[in-house]
# Entry
Amino acid sequence: MLHAKNILKVLCASNLGWDDPVPDELAKRWALWINDMYKLSEFSVTRCLKPAGFGEVKSATLHHFSDASEIGYSIVSFIRLLNKDNRVHCAFVIGKSRVAPMKQITVPRLELTTATVAVRTDKMLKSEIDIKLDESVFWTDSMAVLRFIENSSARFQTFVANRLSVIHDGSNPEQWRYIPTKINPGDIASRGITVDELNKSWIVAPDFLWKDESKWPADRVNQTISNDDPEVKKVNFVKYRADNVLSPDAREVLDKLISYLSSWYKLKRAVAWILKICEKLLHRAKTKGVSVAVPSISEKKPYVTFDDLKHAEMSILRYTQKCAFPEEIETLTNNESTCRLKRNSVIRNLDPIMEDGLLRVGGRLQDSAMPEERKHPVILPKNYDVSKLILREIHERLNHVGRNHTLSVLREKYWLINGPSAVRKVISKCVVCRRQNASVGEQKMSNLPRDRVTPDELPFTRVGVDYFGPFEVKQGRSLVKRYGVLFTCLTSRAIHLEVAASLDTDSYINALRRFIARRGQVTTIRSDNGSNFVGAERELKASIQEWNINRIQDTLRQKHVDWKFIPPA
# Structure
């Protein structure tokens, strides 16, 4: 079938349509393949793996042969039986051939793909065959595949790594053996064979398989894979040169590490671990070949200590200053005066000094009793990720205080160029501070009602009414309660007061009549319904709820007054 699949592959690569004529050369190849298919009627395979009279099987082993070419790849599997008399019988089990993909792929990758198919076929056969099987043997004529399988240290490209994962899950490197191409039964199938070749070679086990194991082809060759192999991933190492100047690649890696972490403590901890690992690797390199192994510091303390964090902090600050002030550091390292600094240097006015490889603020406080960090704080450049991380750590440690307090604590140890603006920028981007200092949301008020804005009307034409009180009034020898009735003009906000003897309906109607008699006819009255007086007494609420609302409305209709109730809140 490989010939037919290859013809179809060539037709697809030629971008021919369904109605386009087939080229003459492909048409001839197709006719030859069709004629060859008629010979399949003579093809036969013995279905029984164990021949009659073979006796008890002492051992049974599956042998898988794989090969690949630019046309396709194939695998063929045989079972080798050994009885108690050491008689050998080999039988054909299964064979597969597949056409190479349309996308151009190297032959070593195709060989590796074939090895993957062999491992999967072995897993399938072991689940289907009832005979007890020993460890399978895999044969390939590709030295590249054997080197890939045997290697466990190199990092391969994704294509190779994925297929090696399948191979290692289904087999061991010791199961793979080398076979010359001339005697590999999978070789002819990878290029396509005729029916005659199928009967003679593909389904017949190789001659050496019928012989003793000592006469098999030489065992697999142990070879290490080269670092120049295109399938091996290239690993970039970060190196310091002798003059402590970082290469561009190293600077890019360190900048990515600093920008990746969002916390000053996390950055120091990550750098501390990196330095501990570097120290351990250097110790191993120095003690290589020494019989007595001395434990390194990293082995004694498998955790980050305060000294490790301090060392990491100094390393980060040195790297940041080398990136920001290379010329200033070179000038001061050569024991030259501060006056030699360029006039446009941003740290010239700070009278900088070099101490422990760090740029610090100078000044005249050398003999003061202040701590060394406060006398000569470390200079930090502006707009650098390290400076932002330090500012953010101080701001959060102080529970999100203001700009001046944050800047004051910062300058106890560091001197940041343009510190006030940098602190302001950090605080403006702080989520917690933005939430705490955000303006309170305001509800937009609705439009004023028509009663409030109607012009050219007499005062108290549209009014609002409410009760207040009670007040105790002496009447004879007793004290009685009296209530105030407040009428307010909705247009001019003028106020009119009346006295109500009680909270009953009649008392309110009488107060309303007196109001109208004094101020004139009213067209609209607004009041609440007696259940939501804010600040009123309980007695006032209960009594107003007992008003006869229907009677009051009926009285007002006779006077052409519209009484509107404000809905409860």
